[in-house]
Amino acid sequence: YMVTVVGAPDPTPGTHELFATEGGAAAMAYVFNTLHQNHIVGPGDAIAMATPIFTPYLQIPVLEDFGFRVVEIPAAHDAAHRFEEHALDRLRDPSIKAFFVINPGNPDSRAITPERLRELADLVVADRPDLVIVADTAYAAFVDGFQGTIGHLPRNVVCIHSFSKTFGATGNRLGFVAVHHDNVLDDLLRSQSDERRAAARERYGSVTAEPDDLSFMARLVADSRDVALHNIAGLATPAQVEMGLFSLFHLLPSGQDYIRGVRAELAEREQTLIEPLGVAAPGGQDSLYYALVDLRAVVRALHGDAADAVIDRFDPTEIARRLAADHGVIVLPGQLFDAESWDVRVSLASLTLDELRQVGLAMRAVVDQVAAEL
User: Fold this and answer.
1) Residue 33: what pLDDT?
2) Helix (H/G/I), strand (E/B), else coil: 148
3) pTM > 0.90: yes or no
4) Are the C-beta atoms of residues 111 and 287 closer than 8 Å to each other?
5) Which of 28, 37, 137, 245 is deepest in the core (most CB within 10 A)?
6) Strand, coil or helix: what is 69?
7) pLDDT by residue (tens digit) across 82-136?
8) How far is CA 71 from CA 51, 179, 193, 355, in A?
9) Sheet architecture: strand order including 157-162
10) Other CB atoms closer than 10 Å to residue 273's CB: what's the count?
């Protein structure tokens, strides 16, 4: 499953250490905490974020407990590709300790192209072998032939994965963290000052008699239960069995039929949503779990000459407000994810074809209404 879905480079058992967690959200919280507790990223240090991004990735690092400085790496807007050429060059900055990316994305839902992944790999090998990459792959199964950062840079990547999206199993809380057995995080721990190594000995002394040799993954497991309860960390056995069955099902012919059917359904849902709006889908390697609709492009497509006046006069949140008040349609404004201000996110996975048709028609009605008010 790691190789075929997440994009890991090597199917040999034991190549990666996996820690089963209470969904992707817990995995994400654990990774932030252990990076912080072990001074791999400390207060005032910079981390890069591939934006737009799931809101907690923006909110957690600036909390008082962490105090990280966030450097945004924006995606190409409404394009088939995720990043423009050289967009990742700012990762050459040695003050950036870690790069957080959801791939395929949320809310933009596109995967990073293989060309950009090779560019990232070349950059890290040549200039930033110490860079930690935290890659959230919750939507990977929706992209045929997905390639992940873990396949191009296995030593540098902390992979976060969740089964909630592919199998509609959000309430089951099934996910994992994966780290290559030969990884840069352990290198960073070994190179720390005597003072920090002494602090780690004190923190993890109850886990092992040799805390200096404790790997990043072992520390993450311990930290997930405040060290003292490390012996009961992770998922209960029935949940791990369920996760194993999900993985096995995905690899069987029946699982492949299921995921092909899901992909086809999501593609039809996207087309149904945008059909009344006069705009085209961005294309590319897209999970299609969400649609990020550029309402500015919709205004231009439907009202041409009047578009600039509409954009100048109306705050984009007014469109979202009217959709809710007048049509009972709730969309998430792009600003929540650090997307373009006129973007709105619609969850294609959560709505039927008929519901999405109504959402598209409601968007068109609101855009027509504001244009008529000029």
Assistant:
1) 97
2) coil
3) yes
4) yes
5) 137
6) strand
7) 999 999 999 999 999 999 999 999 999 999 999 999 999 999 999 999 999 999 9
8) 10, 24, 26, 37
9) 16-22, 174-180, 157-162, 132-136, 96-102, 46-51, 69-74
10) 24
Residue type at position 299: V
d(CA 373, CA 119): 48
Phi, psi of 218 (to 5 degrees): -65, -35
Cα 224 from Cα 227, distance rounded (Å): 7
Instruction: Please report the DSSP string for 246-294 in residue order.
Output: HHHHHHSHHHHHHHHHHHHHHHHHHHHHHGGGT-----SSB--SEEEEE
The residue whose two tokens read 């309430």 is 171
Contact (Cβ atoms closer than 8 angstroms) between residue 344 and residue 333: yes
* Amino acid letter, residue 86: H
161-200: pLDDT as tens digits: 999 999 888 889 999 999 999 999 999 999 999 999 999 9
| Angstrom distance (rounded) from CA 241 to CA 237 | 6
Among the residues of the chain, which ranges form H helices?
A: 23-37, 56-59, 114-127, 149-152, 184-190, 194-204, 216-223, 237-251, 253-274, 295-303, 307-313, 316-327, 353-372
Long-range pairs for 348-351: beta carbons < 8 A, 24 or more residues apart: 348/266, 348/269, 348/270, 348/273, 348/288, 348/289, 348/290, 348/291, 349/165, 349/266, 349/289, 349/290, 351/269
